[in-house]
């Protein structure tokens, strides 16, 4: 029976990791999968995580099961960073730990479907796994254009989509550092989005996987907080994989805001049942390390400093690209006001292949580049390679 299965192509983004590793050219540049890199091209473990892990090893007295909700100490410690001064919105928000942001999005979509959502609107391009998850959960995906050609967010369309959405529909938005475009809504645009949701029957699903990599923790949470203040219900998928550098440890959380505190237990019981049937309970280690950091003032200060260093370095790379201005047929200026790890360059498939073959530069087939893959030692080579293939 299993021989009936048709071969599937590997996930294109993850396949790029192997292609890059197999390339023996010394000056190769990896702009593929979304991991932060230092000016030396490394992705080190955060010092704050190392310290928290050392404490965990010394103090953890059991690895016995928790439950489908995972480490609630971790889930709750994160909430003030995500939701601000009233992190439970008067007892209406609760969360659970998930295996990375992917687990959180998967659970959000699955529970929305269980609650009667039949279609999800989402701006495209988006993180390719969003569409894969929607397809796997079997829910109707209604795409709309996320961005304008000039590198700004297509606010009119998203507002129309939210206003026109009916009961039984959800709208999925990226909280900050849009993946893949880096094109975020401005604060004024978030105000308008929140007002549109207030007048709409649509359920907001907000995915925030890069908090702190844009302009700062509070700044990057502006949109989420605005929307939550305006609506009765929402789902928020969160990832610590990037802002704590925990990628392979899979550290995420799904938060739900209910109409009122009394409504939370029923929703959480559905989430617990879905999690139990999917992964039983999330991997513990990464979430526990994040909890240790957030419960210790010195470790928290160290983490915030490391995050600020990452943010500043990515901003410098963006500034340098923007300064280059017109490069071949490209205008790199918009990259200067985009945010986070990613931007998309309007390159053809052939140009992307040529960059790989002739210059050992690896990027996603969509033209998405990982800004953090660039540094002082390779950015000039990257800019001249772009000029050559597009000139
Ligand atoms: C990315 O978009 O590169 C990251 O979110 C990693 C992933 O899981 O796709």
UniProtKB/TrEMBL annotation:
Keyword Translocase: no
Entry keywords, A to Z: Aminotransferase, Pyridoxal phosphate, Transferase
UniProt-listed Pfam families: Aminotran_1_2
Keyword Transferase tagged: yes
Source taxon at top rank: Bacteria
GO molecular function annotations of the record: identical protein binding; L-aspartate:2-oxoglutarate aminotransferase activity; L-tyrosine-2-oxoglutarate transaminase activity; pyridoxal phosphate binding
CDD domains per record: AAT_like
Gene Ontology biological process terms, A to Z: L-phenylalanine biosynthetic process from chorismate via phenylpyruvate
One Gene Ontology cellular component: cytosol
InterPro entries cross-referenced by the UniProt entry: Aminotransferase_I/II_large, Asp_trans, PyrdxlP-dep_Trfase, PyrdxlP-dep_Trfase_major, PyrdxlP-dep_Trfase_small
Aminotransferase class I/classII large domain span: 27-386
Cofactors (names): pyridoxal 5'-phosphate
SUPFAM superfamilies xref list: PLP-dependent transferases (SSF53383)
PANTHER family in UniProt: ASPARTATE AMINOTRANSFERASE (PTHR11879), ASPARTATE AMINOTRANSFERASE, MITOCHONDRIAL (PTHR11879:SF22)
Subunit structure: Homodimer.
Family in the record: Belongs to the class-I pyridoxal-phosphate-dependent aminotransferase family.
Protein name in UniProt: Aminotransferase class I/II-fold pyridoxal phosphate-dependent enzyme
Source organism of this protein record: Pontixanthobacter aquaemixtae
